[in-house]
Amino acid sequence: MDKLNLAFLLIVVSIFAVDSQQPNFIIMLMDDMGWGDLGTLGEPAKETPNLDKMADEGMLLTDIYASNPLCSPSRAALLTGRLPIRTGFYTTNAHARNAYIPQNVMGGIQSDEVLFPKLLQKAGYTTKIVGKWHLGQQPEYLPLKHGFDEWFGAPDCHVGPYDNKVEPNIPVYENDHMVGRYYEEFPINKKSGESNMTQVFVESAVEFITRQASEKKPFFLYWAPDATHTPVYASKEYLGTSKRGLYGDAVRELDDGVGTILDKLKQLDIAKDTMVFFSSDNGPALNSDVMAGSNGPFLCGKHTTFEGGVRVPGIVWWPKTIPAKQVSAQSGSLMDLFPTLLSIAQVPFLSDRIIDGIDLSQTFFKNAEIPRAVFHYRGDELMAVRHGQYKAHLWTWTSFLNLSKNVSKTTTLVVTKHNGMKAKATHTTTDDEQGQEFCPGQFLKGVTTHEQVNHTAHPILFHLGRDPSERFPIKQTSSEYEETIASIMKVVDSFLRDLKPAAPQLNWCDQAVMNWAPPGCDVLQKCIPSPLSSPYLCNWDH
């Protein structure tokens, strides 16, 4: 073989080796962080220099959506690539209710659902979750049963403190056993907002990355800190440093955590081998007043399917693979990470089920735009659909304010229990006068409705390019409306015709399934006697 042919062969072999190398993946998922919280997306205080630099070095995704306006269903959709209606992360106890998994809920992620970490694990990846899980707290629902090799974090958010009598404090796990509880071994001062949990989560991530780099094994890290979820917290050194108050302090610390992790990748010389994706599980909890994030120019926040509730920040970073200084307006979903990461890792997709996410690798690499529809659910109801630049609202509901005190209602339901059995039960709900408002200061007549309104016959239509704030509905008498709605409803009809909802996992509650005696509690002498099991229908008032 002559020298020229030998040189050519070596180049080909070298290129093939680079292309076939499995990259590392990191997903950074914030909790209730708003689209408008990043400086690069217009936050006036400009207190996210690391995230802004990450966007400058990679691609800013302006049109990324959470798959649900609430935590548990959104996180389940991200990891399964499937809408919550397909995985059971919804309730049928009442229409269009936002249900999730506080510690009294009996359901969780089912064993027949395949999370993409499981597929990466089978392909040789080491996988770890750091932070909030929220897909079920009973042993069969925990991360190590669903594709993760390691875990440091909690099954639920850091809500509390509880008295350990009526309700136990949330446990913190290391892998398959608890190592303490929030407000006990892992303190959070609700009065001052001080907690070092973000630092603990950063250290856990850095340790994992460093260890995997030394072992030269591909890894997937799911980094899910929850400092921006109420009760908001930040470490002592960050308290009082933000112009935005305590919430801003938490954002600043998370931003520095992102910088620490990216710097560690560069220091270990594995940045070029690692794709990092940053986002949030849903929009800001505007009902938390000044302890909430920013929805930027958008309408409403968490709990709603308006843009402020479901459009979330998106950044993808991969030095030398994803070109710097890119901006993409591709309509994307957190569910898209399932097929995208598997495609990049050259891991086969599942063929026995519908995956709602689409492969965005060509968007990341070439800034290609891929036509698609994005479906927005609230509980068991399809509320809205984005198709191209248009968004149609089939239902609206932005609060559950009551106009009179002590509104009491008794309903009889036929529902599916957690074990698949049918049951008939009565359930009485009593809501107070105040309720919750999820669009404070943003009232639009006929759009932000204080009761459920069915617009299916004549959906409310917005053009998000001309009107990203969803303030000016397109006139229903216009040809633009008629042509666009006809096209969107064909997409909706086709989608619903083929839809097969899974059995709802969020219908039944039981105080006995709370975190009374998690694995490892005996070693710490932290086991708490459990009450007798007495299942009841969960009350989802909004």
Based on the model shown, name its key terms:
single chain; 12 helices; disordered N terminus; alpha/beta; eleven-stranded mixed beta sheet; 542 residues; 21 strands; four-stranded antiparallel beta sheet
Layout of secondary structure:
Blueprint lengths: L2 H18 L3 E7 L18 H9 L1 E7 L5 H10 L3 H4 L28 H7 L3 E7 L17 E5 L16 E4 L2 E5 L15 H19 L3 E6 L21 H22 L6 E7 L26 H4 E7 L8 E3 L3 E2 L3 H8 L16 H6 L6 E6 L2 E7 L2 E4 L1 E2 L10 E10 L5 E10 L21 E2 L5 E4 L15 H20 L9 E2 L11 H4 L11 E2 L5
Parallel strand pairs: 1-7, 1-8, 2-10, 2-11, 3-4, 3-7
Antiparallel strand pairs: 2-9, 4-5, 5-6, 8-9, 12-13, 13-14, 14-19, 15-18, 16-17, 20-21
Helix pairs in contact: 2-7, 6-7
Structure description:
The protein is of the alpha/beta class and 542 residues long. It contains 12 helices and 21 strands. The chain has helices spanning 3-20, 49-57, 71-80, 84-87, 116-122, 197-215, 246-267, 307-310, 337-344, 361-366, 479-498, 521-524; strands spanning 24-30, 59-65, 126-132, 150-154, 171-174, 177-181, 219-224, 274-280, 311-317, 326-328, 332-333, 373-378, 381-387, 390-393, 395-396, 407-416, 422-431, 453-454, 460-463, 508-509, 536-537. Strands 1, 2, 3, 4, 5, 6, 7, 8, 9, 10 and 11 form an 11-stranded mixed beta sheet that branches. β16 (407-416) and β17 form a beta hairpin. α2 (49-57) packs across α7 (246-267) and α6 (197-215) runs parallel beside α7 (246-267). The chain is globular and about 70 Å long. Mean pLDDT is 91; it is low at 1-19 and 403-433.
